[in-house]
Amino acid sequence: MVISTMTIDAGVLDSTFVSRYASTPLPRNKMPEKPTTCDAAYQIISGELMLDGNPRLNLASFVTTWMEPECDKLMMEAINKNYVDMDEYPVTTELQNRCVNMIAHLFNAPIGEDETAVGVGTVGNTEAIMLAGLAFKRKWQNKRKAEGKPYDKPNIITGANVQVCWEKFARYFEVELKEVKLREGYYVMDPVKAVELVDENTICVAAILGSTLTGEFEDVKLLNELLTKKNEETGWDTPIHVDAASGGFIAPFLYPDLEWDFRLPLVKSINVSGHKYGLVYAGVGWVIWRSNEDLPDELIFHINYLGTDQPTFTLNFSKGSSQIIAQYYQFIRLGFEGYKLIMKNCAENAKSLREGIEKTGKFEVVSKDIGVPLVAFSLKDSSIYSVFDISENLRRFGWIVPAYTMPANAENIAVLRVVVREDFSRSLVDRLITDIQKVLADLVSTVAATSSLESTKNVKVAVVKKTVEETVQEITSYWKKLVNKEKTTGVC
Ligand SMILES: Cc1ncc(COP(=O)(O)O)c(C=O)c1O
C-alpha cells in the first residue's frame, strides 16, 4: 500500500475523521481549504461509511442489494453517461425503449407485435406515479373543459395504506386525496368503498398490487367490475391506475392467471419498480400507459438543443444511464424463466420464515400467502414487550427489521415486517428465526430481572410495560410533532 504525502495544514479541525494517510482533521460542515489526497479521501469516507447498516441485512427494504458482478461492471462502465443525452447515447435510449416494450408485453398491454408501447423509465416509482397522476389529471381537465364544467376540484381515490408518494402527488399537484380507511383484519383498499367514493371529479382510482405494509394484492379485478358498472350508470369514465411497485414483477411470474393489469379495460397506466423485484439497484422505475390516448400530448416536451428532436415526459432532466442498462441486462440475462425461478425462491423463503415465526407461538402473521414475498407479523400479547422492543433488539445481531403501526383506522395494530429479497437465503432465514427466538427469551428475562430487582429492593414500583395502544400514541405524537400532523409509515 502506498502511503501518500500528506498536506498538513494546522487551521483545519475536528478529530472525528482519522486516517493513517492524514493526520490533519477535516472540517465537518465546511469545504476544506486545501485538497486531500485521493487515497486519504477514500479511506476517510469508506471508514466512516462502515457505520451504516449492512444493506444485505436490511430487511426493511424491497430495494435490490445484490446483482451479478458482470452487471456491476456494466453499470460502472456507464456511470459517466447522462441518460438525457439521447442523441449522444442512442443505444442507451434504445435499451430503455426495449425495456418499456418488454414490460408492456409482460403486463398484457394491447399492442400489436409491430407496435411500440407507451412508457418511460423514471428514477423510481414516485416519479412514475407523479407522471401517471399528471396524465390522469390533465385528461380529466380536458374532458371537463370540453363539457363546459368546472375543473378545479380534482380528486383521487386510494386506500389509506398507500405509500407516501401518493400523498406527495396529491399535495404537490393539488388533487384531493380521498382515502378508503382500513379496519382491523383488513389492511388493503376495499373496492366497494373505493367505488362509493368516486364522483364526477375523480381523476382515477389507484389500486396497489402489493401493499407496502403487508404485501397484499388489492382486488383490481373486482374494482374494475364495480367501476365499470358505476361508469355505465353515471356516464363518467373513471379510470384505474395500478401501483405495482412491488407486485408488478411478482404476479406475472407466480400468479399468471391473476387479472390485475391491462387485461382489465379500465386499467390505463401501471407503474412498476425496476429497483425492487425488477432486480436492479436503487434508481429505476417504470410507468407504462395502455395507449397513446391515455397520455395527453401536451405533457410531452420536445427539445432539440442536444441534436435531434427528443420527446421527454419526466420530472427531472439529467440522470444516470447505469440503471437502465442494468435493467436490460436482467431482462436478457434471466428471461421469463429466470425471473420466475427467483420469485419462486423468494416465495419459498418467505413461507419458511412465516412458518418459523408462527412456531414461536408469539406472533400472528398478518401478510397473506399470495402477494409480495414478505412476512408482516404482530404480537399476540404485547403486555410484556412490544414489536418496537423486538425491532430494537434485533439490531444487536445486525438485522434491520422495521416495526410500525397500521394507518387509519387500524392504528392500534403494530407489526414487524421482513421483506424477502433474492439475496435473503434460506440459511439467513433460519438465522433470523433463531435470533428472533433469542430476542424473545432475552426480553422475558430482562423484564423478570427488573421485577426481581425491584422486589428485593422492596421499592413499590410496578414494571410498567406499555400496551401497544400506549406505544402507538407515543410514536404517533412524536411523528406528528415532526411532520406537522402528516402521516408517514417510515417504510418504503
Ligand atoms: C406500493 C409502493 N408505491 C410506491 C413506492 C415508492 O417507490 P420509490 O421508492 O421507488 O419512489 C413504494 C416504495 O416502497 C411502494 O411500496
From TrEMBL:
**Cofactors per UniProt?**
pyridoxal 5'-phosphate
Ribosomal protein found in the keyword field: no
Q: Under which main EC class is this enzyme filed?
A: lyase
MF terms from GO for this chain are: glutamate decarboxylase activity; pyridoxal phosphate binding
Spell out the GO cellular component terms annotated for this protein, sorted alphabetically and separated by semicolons.
cytosol
The record's catalysed reaction(s) read: L-glutamate + H(+) = 4-aminobutanoate + CO2
Q: Where is the signal peptide?
A: none
Q: Name one GO biological process term.
A: L-glutamate catabolic process
The family classification in the record reads: Belongs to the group II decarboxylase family.
From the Swiss-Prot or TrEMBL record, give the protein name: Glutamate decarboxylase
- Write down the species: Dioscorea cayennensis subsp. rotundata
Q: Mind giving the lineage of the organism this protein is from?
A: Eukaryota, Viridiplantae, Streptophyta, Embryophyta, Tracheophyta
